[in-house]
Amino acid sequence: MSDTARSNRFHIGVFGRRNTGKSSLVNAIAKQQVSIVSDVAGTTTDVVWKNIELPGVGAAIIADTAGYDDEGVLGGMRVKRTMQVAQRIDLALIIVSGNPHDATFEIEWIEMFRKATIPSLILFGRCDESDSETIELWRQKLTRNILPVSAKNMTGINVLLKQIADIYKKDDNFEDITEGLVEKGDTVVLVMPQDAQAPKGRLIQPQVITLRNLLDKHCLALCCAPEELEQMLGNLSSPPSLIITDSQVFAQVKALTPPQTKLTSFSVLMARYKGDIEVFRAAADVLVNLPSNARILIAEACSHIPQNEDIGRVKLPRMLRKRLGEDITIDIVGGNDFPDDLTPYDIIIHCGACMFTRRHVMSRIRRANAQHIPITNYGIAIAALTGILDRVVY
To answer: Is 80 exceeded by the pLDDT of residue 271?
Structure first.
């Protein structure tokens, strides 16, 4: 469980006003001291993430957030961090407590999650310190079912865990990264450059996810570096069913791929595993026809230190300028940095998002669509820029 990548965990966020018992609830669910608990409002000043194993869910991660009613300059910064968490979770636990004199915050956040198609559960925290009439007032105010919980005596915790498991089972997870592309017994060649971008002693997430998927399907998975591909193909008695390559060597691999062999890339596979492949594919047509003064946003999920020939910061911009001209403007953001206003851009090119959940990527796609800005991903973009997109399967 501890080895499961964060991006492959079920993300749960705990939200509410200050001092409603968020941290106590996180500790109760995790069955250990994860967050500092205090009667002082605003004790949680930054997001606390905890990897946990939940019944009926498996590997999950829970986030304890600062109160969304925090005040002042620092409070505003903490609320902004809480908002960032809200964009990347699979389930929101919203805690209320006390008398519902003003439910403005709760109504706003419930509606925000509804619009983002993020399921939410409403909990009444510290129910052992209140009465049923107060809980009923909250139910009427929010017009939602409310589950009373208490971290102190564990009231409602088992019911909550059951509800979390039920929501997880209904979650829209795209779990088969090679769906429709391979069958049991197929030979698949994975082309994986071992250059400065490859982490020493390990494989990158898309390669790990794809390789495990192929093994689970009982495919014959063969791995090589680009310079050994020709030898690999020559050693095979028949062409492979599929070649999966790193996008940065798309053109090189395409030239060696037999006509009857399907071709794709790890990034293209991640485009449908974590995002909306049809949206990304449609944006590719826009990309290759952009004007010479276009402004492009390149978004990376991780905020790594750039290496020589970094694909997002060096290779992709070079390809864009070669195709569209030197006058284009390229802005690059990493990690959770993603502009609220996307309208200055003609297109967004997103990385494979191996560090993000599918829901996080989909939230960015929805934001781009809402502002009528095309969005694609690295693999689709590189295939389009090199003129081989029609040869690529997805």
So the answer is: yes
- For 297, phi then psi, to 5°, come to -105, 125
Pairing outcome for strands 375-377 and 329-334: unpaired
Give the CB-side neighbour count of residue 57, counting CA atoms within 13 A. 27
What is the SS3 assignment for 188? strand
Return d(Cα 180, Cα 183) in angstroms, integer. 8
First and final C-alpha spacing in the chain: 30
**Which residues make Cβ contacts (< 8 Å) with residue 283, sequence separation at least 6?**
347, 374, 375, 376, 380
Whole-angstrom distance, CA of residue 170 vs CA of residue 143: 23
- The tens digit of pLDDT for each residue in 85-101 reads 888 899 999 999 988 88
Least confidently predicted of 65-79, 166-180, 250-264, 319-333: 166-180
Beta-carbon contacts of 241 under 8 Å, excluding residues fewer than 6 positions away, are 182, 183, 186, 187, 188, 261, 262
Q: pLDDT confidence of 310, banded at 50, 70, 90?
A: confident
Using an 8 Å Cβ cutoff, are 384 and 288 in contact?
Answer: yes
Whole-number average pLDDT of the chain: 89
- Residue among 367, 393, 221, 381 nearest 311 (CA): 381
Helix, coil or strand: residue 318 = helix
Contacts 24+ apart (CB under 8 A), 253-258: 253/191, 253/226, 253/229, 254/386, 254/388, 254/391, 256/229, 256/230, 257/391, 258/233
Q: Is 120 left (phi over 0), alpha (psi -120 to 50) or beta?
A: beta
pTM of the model: 0.74
**Confidence class for position 43, pLDDT limits 50, 70, 90:** very low
Pairing status of strand 120-124 against strand 91-96? parallel
Please state, in angstroms and rounded to a whole number, the distance separating the CA atoms of residues 274 and 282.
17
Report whether 279 contacts 365 (CB < 8 A).
yes
52, 57, 58, 59: CA torsion to nearest 10: -50
